[in-house]
Structure formats: C-alpha cells, structure tokens
Amino acid sequence: MGNGFSYEISHRDEKSLARVGTIATPHGQIQTPAFIPVGTKATVKSVLPESMRDLGAQALLANAYHLYLQPGHDVLDEAGGLAKFMNWDGPTITDSGGFQVLSLGVGFKKVLAMDAKTFRSDEVIAGNKERLAHVDDEGVTFKSHLDGSMHRFTPEISMQVQHQIGADIIFAFDECTTLHNTRRYQEVAIQRTYNWGLRCLDEHKRLTDVRIDKPYQALFGVIQGAQYEDLRKKAATDFAAMTSSDISYDGFGIGGALDKDSLGTIVKWVNEILPENKPKHLLGIGAPEDLFVGVENGIDTFDCVLASRIARTSAVYTMEGRFNLSNAAYKRDFNPIDDECDCYTCTHYTRAYLHHVFRGKEIIAATLATIHNERYIVRLVDQMRQALLDGNFWDMKADFLGRYKHKSGQSND
Ligand SMILES: [Zn+2]
C-alpha cells in the first residue's frame, strides 16, 4: 500500500479473529473496529457534519449510485471531492453502486433481509416486467429510480464514478445476489464478480496514474457467495490472490445476502482466508447484536443506514433495547432517551419533548433522534474496541446482550 493509505494491527484477541487497528487515509485515521455512519447522498439525513464529528463518527460512507444520478460525479470532482463538497473534515468511503443498481433496479424487497426465512422467495424479487435492471457479463443496465432514464454501470464506469467522487476508500463493482437466487445463479454471479474484480483493478490503476495529483484512493474487493461455504471461500481465495496491472486490493468488503443466523459463520469462512494485514468491511450490517458477531469474526469497519432510518420513525436504541418515542407512554416521561448515553440529545432533551416533536411532525425530531442513534452505535463499537484492548470483550458482550435482549424481547429490526 502507499500514498497515505495503510492498515496496522495494534492488538489481537486470543480467542477469536477480533483485532484492534488503525486505518490511515489521506483525510485522516480510523481507529478500528469502527462503525461508519451512512450519508447516502453526501449527507447524514437531518444532521450536520459537525454534529457527526461531535458524536464520534470517524468517517462517513456515501453511495456512488445516488451521487452519480444526482448531482453527478463530475460535480463532486469539481468541488474537490466528497469530503470537501459535504464539509466533512475526515475520511470518506463510497460503495460501488452495485448493490443499489441491483436492489433498486431488480426490485428486491429486502435484499439483505436479516429475517429471510420469514417470507417466501417469490415475494422477494419483482416480476420481470417490473424490473429496472438487467445484468449481463459486461455490466448492468438500469433505469433511474428518480426519472426513469436509462443508465449503464460497468466495472470501469463504477471506478470512474468513484474516482471522481473522490472518497478515500472505494469498492469494486460486484453483482449482489439474494438468498433466494438459485445455486446455479450464484455460481454464475460469483464468476462475474471475479471478472469484474480484475477489470476494477485495471481501471483503478489507470485512473490512479492519470489522476496522480489527487489523494490516493484505496480499493476494496467485495466477497460475495451468498450462504454457500464453497462459494464464499472461493471468492475469498480468489480476491485475496487477485492481481492485475501490478496491483492488488487494499482491503475487502463482505457483501451480499447475509442471513442473521449464519452471519458469523460466513464472515469467519471469509476472514480466515483473506490476508490478516488488510482491513475488512462488513457492508450494510448495523444491528447492535450483529456488530458483536462481526467484530469477533475479524471485521474492522461497518456501515448501515439502520440507525438513522429507524430514528426518523421515532425508534431509538437504549442499553435495554429499542422503543418508539411516539408511543403514548412517553408523553410525560421527562427522562432522557437513555440515561447512560452521553449524546447531545440525551444531555439536553427529554423523552416527553421528543414525543411531542415526533407527534407534531417537527423536523427537529429526526435530527435529535438521529444524533442519539448514531452516537449509540458509534459508541457501542468504540466500547468493543476498548474492551478488546482491556481484555474484557467477552464479558462486555455478555453484559450487553443480557440487558439488551432482556427487556426488549427481541432486538431484530
Ligand atoms: Zn443519546
């Protein structure tokens, strides 16, 4: 690696794949494990970047598909890159657009459904005539969810878009499948993702050379393979060894269909194969109990829209579990959301006030609840990192899960 990007491990857990480390980027460092909040369209909805910094976010993740459609990657390039454009003084990440192209386009109802067993497969994917995306070996043709215009992403275009957006960490273009695709389809998709992986390396090298005056961008490969052990292990083996244009991947993302029950198993299959000295990102996972599973199986960074998305519906996390602020029970509750939370919302506002602004559909409701939920998740992973350093990660996990599930009954979304 070079040009300002590196990853160093400072501590390893003896009983698991968990580790503590530092990712360095041209825009600053990320102490890992870390939760990376999502600002899909170069904004964490309803929250200022300054507030994200104050609540402990070390980096933000935006989405290449959305920024390509609006305002256009060329606008971000002209602005000096994603971080400068959105007034974020720190590292940024973009995902490749593969997931959005396919999930929005094909009409998956719940691609990363954590409760995939609870609905039938024919409910998952929209009928062919409703599909907005078609995959071929060269790329994906899709219809914009904004205005219906036709577009095409290929590995090369994804790299070009992500280079112009200018995040510190970018992802290879991959084909994201569901748990419900056939085994045969998964085999085809994984071969396609492999071929696209080679093309991403070539185009990334070319663009890095052409845009030598820009800060270095690290490229992460994406490991797919759905629920199949042999496919996941093959993808990990292939991407770990993959070299083209004399470069290899700077890190790896684990993506695609991940059933809640097998999340840890799948991450372990992959991370036991991927090189230890490169960072691993778990794409789109962010429920509290799943973050523990990720960390103990060697994940360094996470991103997920869940914390901010549920906040806008008045659902908030506490150490005891989740609850909804708009429930009548909180009308005269003058306690903070969580009296153990140190966020701006909890130190300045009561449940009764939040109940009032949610009921009144005031814009500030989303802001205050999002600040709390993002702080809660960021801090939870920070606490895991500290517990690893202190040698009490397993006690911390047992304490957390004991309390979290005890009162909430269930903690799944
Ligand atoms: Zn709080």
Task: List ligands, each type once.
Answer: zinc ion
Biggest sheet, open or closed, and with what strands and sense? 8 strands, parallel
Question: Helical region count?
Answer: 15
Across the major sheet, the strand order is 4-16-15-14-11-10-6-5
Q: How many β strands by DSSP?
A: 18
Shape: globular
What helical percentage do the residues reach? 40-55%
Q: Average pLDDT value?
A: 91
Uncertain ranges? 109-124, 406-413
Measured on Cα atoms, how large is the radius of gyration? 21 Å
Q: What's the end-to-end separation, in Å?
A: 38 Å
Strand percentage: 15-25%
What's the SSE blueprint?
Layout: E1 6-12, E2 19-25, E3 28-32, E4 34-37, H1 49-54, E5 60-63, H2 64-69, H3 73-79, H4 82-85, E6 92-95, H5 98-106, E7 133-135, E8 140-143, E9 150-153, H6 155-165, E10 169-171, H7 183-210, E11 218-223, H8 229-241, E12 243-244, E13 247-248, E14 251-254, H9 263-271, E15 280-282, H10 288-296, E16 301-304, H11 306-311, E17 315-318, E18 321-324, H12 344-348, H13 351-359, H14 363-390, H15 393-408
Helix pairs in contact: 3-6, 6-7, 7-8, 8-9, 10-14, 13-14, 14-15
The structure holds zinc ion (ZN).
What does this structure look like?
With 413 residues, the protein is an alpha/beta fold. Helices cover 40% and strands 18% of the residues. The strands form five sheets. An eight-stranded parallel sheet has the order 4-16-15-14-11-10-6-5. It has a three-stranded antiparallel sheet with strand order 1-2-3. Strands 7-8-9 form a three-stranded antiparallel sheet. Strand 12 and strand 13 (247-248) form a beta hairpin. Residues 337-338, 341, 343, 345-346, 372, 375 line the site of zinc ion (ZN).
